[in-house]
Design brief:
By secondary structure, this protein is α/β, with parallel strands linked by helices. The chain is built from 12 helices and 6 strands. It has one domain: Aromatic amino acid hydroxylase (Phenylalanine Hydroxylase, Orthogonal Bundle), CATH 1.10.800. Strands 4-3-6-5 form a 4-stranded mixed sheet. The protein has a two-stranded parallel sheet with strand order 1-2. Helix 6 runs antiparallel to helix 7. It binds fe (ii) ion.
C-alpha cells in the first residue's frame, strides 16, 4: 500500500534504493524479471481477475481490460501510452516506499509511483509493503477514471499543508479508506474500488461478504478521525454513492479548520460506530 504517514523511513524495507534519483525514481529494468516472476504475476492476475469480475466497480473492470496485462509483469511505458492521453497520468518506477513529501509531489504532478519488485511465493495473498502487483494491478486501472485521477492530484497538493500543520495522519486516513480500501455502491450493490482490497483475494471477500464488519457512508471528516491497522483486515469500510462524490465533496474544501479541530484528538478506533450513525445495510453485495 502507499501509506504516506509510514513512508518516512526506508530502513528495513525491501527494494534497491541505491542509484535512485532525487525523486526516488528508478528504471523499471523490465528485462531483469525472471520467467518465474512473470508466471507468479500471471497466477496473481488470474486469481484476482475472477474476483474483479464479480466485485470490482465498473471503472476498475474497464481500466483493467484496457491495460491488458494478464500475460506477465507489464512494462510501465506501455501503460503510460494508455494513461497519458486518457487522464494525463504516468507511472514512475520506484524501489518501494518513498518519503512522504516525495510521494505527495509525484501525485501533485500526476505521476504515480509504482514499486518495481514482485512479492515472493509465500506471500501471494497479502504483504504490508507495496509490490508491483499491488501498485499496478490495484491502483493503475483506477487512474483511468477521471474522478480518481482528479482526487489523487488534489491529494498530492494537500500533502505539504497537512505536513506543515501536523495533520499528516488525518490526510493519510482519507487515502487509506478510499484509494486503498474504498467501496462504492453501484446499482444498489457494494463494489470495490480500493487497491488494498483489489490486490488481495481474501480482503476482497471480507470487504464485500462479511456481515459483521460495519460499513458507513462516505464522510470525509469521519474518515480523517478514524484509525486503521495495516496488518489485518479492515474493521470498518466507507462507501461512496458514486466515484465523482469523492472529488465533489473535497474540491475547494478548506482542510485547515478540520485539521485544527481534530489533529490533537485520539483517533476513533476502527470498527467503533458513533451514536446516531447509520450503517449501510447488509447484505449490500451479491456474492
Ligand atoms: Fe497502495
Amino acid at each position: 500500500m502507499k501509506v504516506p504517514c509510514t513512508q518516512t523511513s526506508t530502513s528495513g524495507l525491501r527494494g534497491e534504493y541505491e542509484g535512485a534519483a532525487a525523486d526516488y525514481s528508478v528504471g523499471q529494468d523490465w528485462h531483469a524479471y525472471t520467467p518465474e516472476m512473470h508466471e507468479r504475476w500471471r497466477r496473481l492476475h488470474a486469481r484476482q481477475s475472477a474476483l474483479v469480475e464479480r466485485h470490482a466497480c465498473r471503472s476498475f473492470r474497464d481500466g483493467l481490460a484496457r491495460l491488458d496485462c494478464a500475460g506477465g509483469i507489464p512494462r510501465f511505458e506501455d501503460a503510460n501510452a494508455i494513461l497519458r492521453p486518457a487522464t494525463g497520468w504516468r507511472l514512475v518506477a520506484v524501489p518501494g516506499f518513498i518519503p512522504d513529501d516525495v510521494f505527495f509531489d509525484h501525485l501533485a504532478h500526476r505521476r504515480f509511483p509504482v514499486t518495481r519488485w514482485i512479492r515472493e511465493e509465500h506471500e501471494l495473498d497479502y504483504l504490508v509493503e507495496p509490490d508491483v502487483f499491488h501498485d499496478f494491478f490495484g491502483h493503475v486501472p483506477m487512474l483511468l477514471d477521471p474522478a480518481i485521477a482528479d482526487f489523487l492530484e488534489l491529494y498530492g497538493k494537500a500533502g505539504a499543508r497537512a505536513m506543515a500543520m501536523g495533520a499528516l495522519e488525518m490526510l493519510a486516513r482519507l487515502y487509506w479508506y478510499t484509494i486503498e480500501f474504498g467501496l462504492v455502491r453501484e446499482d444498489d450493490v457494494l463494489k470495490v474500488f480500493g487497491a488494498g482490497i483489489m490486490s488481495s483475494a481474501s480482503e476482497t471477500l471480507h470487504s464485500i461478504g462479511d456481515g459483521q464488519v460495519p460499513r458507513l457512508p462516505f464522510e470525509p471528516v469521519r474518515i480523517m478521525r478514524t484509525g486503521y491497522m495495516i496488518d489485518r483486515f479492515q474493521q470498518i469500510y466507507f462507501v461512496l454513492e458514486s466515484l465523482p462524490q469523492l472529488i465533489g465533496e473535497l474540491v475547494g474544501r478548506d482542510f485547515g479548520p478540520i485539521y485544527e479541530q481534530w489533529r490533537a484528538a485520539p483517533a476513533l478506533p476502527a470498527g467503533q460506530c458513533l451514536p446516531g450513525e447509520t450503517l449501510i445495510p447488509f447484505p449490500g453485495a451479491r456474492t
